[in-house]
Amino acid sequence: MQDHAIQERPAEQDSAPEYDLRQIDCDPNFWYPIAWSHKVRPGKAFAARYAGHPIALIRPENGPVYALEDRCAHRQVPLSKGMVEGDCIKCCYHGWAFDRAGKCVTVPYLNKEGVGRPVKSYPCREKSGLIFVFPGDPALAETVPLPQIAQVENPEFKTRRFYPRLKCHYTFMHENLMDMNHQFLHRRQMGSITARFMGQDKGENFQEARYSFARKGGNQPLAEALIFGKHRDIEGQEQPVEEIVSIRTTYPYQTLQIHDKDGDLVMDLWVAYVPLGADQQGTQTFGLLSVKKPKWGFLLDLAWPVLGIFTNRIFEEDKEVVELEQKAWRELGGDHNIEVFPIVKALRALLARSGVPNANARPLKKG
Fold first, then answer.
1. What pLDDT sits at residue 168?
2. pLDDT of residue 305
3. Are residues 238 and 293 in the same domain?
4. Global pTM?
5. 73 three-state secondary structure
6. 125 with 170, same domain?
7. pLDDT by residue (tens digit) across 243-288?
8. What local confidence, expressed as pLDDT, does residue 235 receive?
9. What are this entry's molecular-function GO terms (predicted)?
10. Other beta carbons within 10 Å of 101
């Protein structure tokens, strides 16, 4: 079982954001997933986005996928509507052709080099069924590692994808998952349970909180029992610690891991929140949930549809409430949240110092 002691860090790390947190953009100097690998077929192009930037993903019949600005340099028509020919993408309008570096290699009706202008290219990588781009300074791409993603490559686990799109700023999603005190929201799915805070760790680029849960009423959901086993009912007594749930934001990604009472990993969730829109007030989620296979693996296969329904219902409840938070932010003209939980205060400070205030960011009033 993990150490529950709180690791102390300098107090200034938990200082309140200087700007409205919902006006702090993601730092672009990280790898962000923008599409599932299976969506980008050989010999085809695919339209994706990061924040306000349209990006065309191109997969030649041979060779790795690459990423270009999704606007032809000629008339700004989306390159994703074009035709892949060899290693190049040809604009659907006039047939201008661009290579994987964004260089215009052909303006067919002029038949000479050096005529067409280039388009922006993005560093692009593929891992664990996801296509990542590096939207920031391309010179930094080689120095920033791709994230470790759940247990996708581990044959002892079964993994499912989820990808809800939300009408809210990405910071609401980090807060939602980190703060397990919101289980009251899921009472219809989970029954009456209480989160018990078990400790934290934090550093310059991460915040972690650990919890266990005590059931106060209602039956254990079938999907939960299939993953963790049936919990014992102890009439009139506090439920013992059966699992430890660890939620960690390692900027800009978030994870949730569950270890059983023996310390074995039984569930591993990895999530990236990719901003949408120039104001980043929308979010595309890319998540991978890995569940440890039981001794009789077919049992998990049989339970997989039930688990999918259960997790989808939980995500839908979270989606509704964070979108309501965003709606309130718009109506009130800013962030009026009154936060009292120290873990979320520390998380907000992490997100504030790690992100980039946008052009409209308003300094917060002190006091």
1. 97
2. 81
3. yes
4. 0.88
5. coil
6. no
7. 899 999 999 999 999 998 889 999 999 999 999 999 999 999 999 9
8. 54
9. 2 iron, 2 sulfur cluster binding; metal ion binding; oxidoreductase activity
10. 11
6 in Cβ contact with 200 (< 8 Å): yes
Rounded Cα distance, 127 and 175, in Å: 26
The C-alpha angle with vertex 297 and arms to 295 and 298, in degrees rounded to 5, equals 135
Q: What angle do CA 241, 228, 165 make, to 5 degrees?
A: 105
Question: Looking at residue 307, what is its pLDDT?
Answer: 78
- Boundary residue ending a domain (85, 116, 141): 141
Same domain, 339 and 239: yes
Query: Which residue type, as a one-letter code, is found at position 67?
Result: A
Q: Where are the beta strands (DSSP E) in 135-242?
A: 157-162, 165-166, 192-202, 206-217
Task: Give the residue from 76, 75, 77, 81 showing the smallest Cα distance to 58.
Answer: 81
Picking from 118, 70, 122, 127, the residue whose alpha carbon sits closest to that of residue 286 is 127
Please, which contacts does 48-54 make with residues 24 or more away whose CB atoms are closer than 8 Å? 48/131, 49/276, 49/284, 50/133, 50/135, 50/274, 50/275, 51/25, 51/26, 51/135, 51/275, 51/276, 51/277, 51/278, 51/280, 52/277, 52/278, 53/135, 54/78, 54/80
Q: What are the tens digits of pLDDT across the range 130-157?
A: 999 999 999 999 999 999 999 999 999 9
* Weakly modelled stretches of the chain, pLDDT under 50: 1-12
User: Do residue 131 and residue 194 come from a single domain?
Assistant: no
Report how far residue 120's alpha carbon sits from residue 137's, in angstroms, rounded to the nearest whole number.
12
Range of the domain at 267: 11-25+147-357
Which residues, at least 6 apart from 40, have a Cβ–Cβ distance to it below 8 Å? 46, 57, 58, 59, 65, 131
Pairing of strands 157-162, 165-166: unpaired
What is the reported pLDDT for 314? Answer: 84
What Cα–Cα distance (Å) separates residue 308 from each residue in 23, 293, 301?
34, 15, 11
Q: Tell the burial category of 82 from Cβ atoms under 10 Å away from its Cβ (0-12, 13-18, 19+).
A: buried
Best CA proximity match to 217, nearest among 241, 236, 240:
236
- Spatial separation of the C-alpha atoms in residues 57 and 131, rounded to whole Å: 9
